[in-house]
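In response to reviewer comment 3 from the previous cycle, which asked for concrete evidence that the modeling workflow produces usable outputs, we include below a single protein chain processed end to end. The sequence was submitted unchanged, and the resulting structure tokens are shown without manual editing.
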Amino acid sequence: MPDYTQIFDGDCPITKPEFEAWHQRTVLEMVIEKPTLSVGWAAKVLNFFLKTTVNVAGFGRPDLIKWFHPLVDKGLWEGIEEAYKDRMDIIEKTHFRQKLKDIATYNDYKTIIEGMEIIAKERGYLLIEVEEFWKVRCNEKF
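The workflow returned the following structure tokens.
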């Protein structure tokens, strides 16, 4: 089970390097604990938890919302590809892998996040706000 005390407990703002180190360690621990998970799937599960706990419920240290990652999945890949098809500097990173199961290492995952960070920076967004590009497919069931 992930240890959330570092990112949830305390009043001092969390820094990006501190969050990134925690995120990487936590994802890799999840993969070790459950070897059938790829890094991509472990990151998605963790990021979904963070999105609901931090963004929706408001938990966490100050500035945590600035650093947590979007939910990488097919819908987000499709939306980014449509909006940025002419931006190879972004597509080469965000579409480095295109299936969660193929994101095998944390470096693979980090490459995708780096592409999304370019989008966020250019638009003046928080990283999580890159999810605005997420596309729902017509045949998708909830």
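The mean pLDDT is 93. We consider this sufficient to address the reviewer's concern, and the full set will be provided in the supplementary archive.
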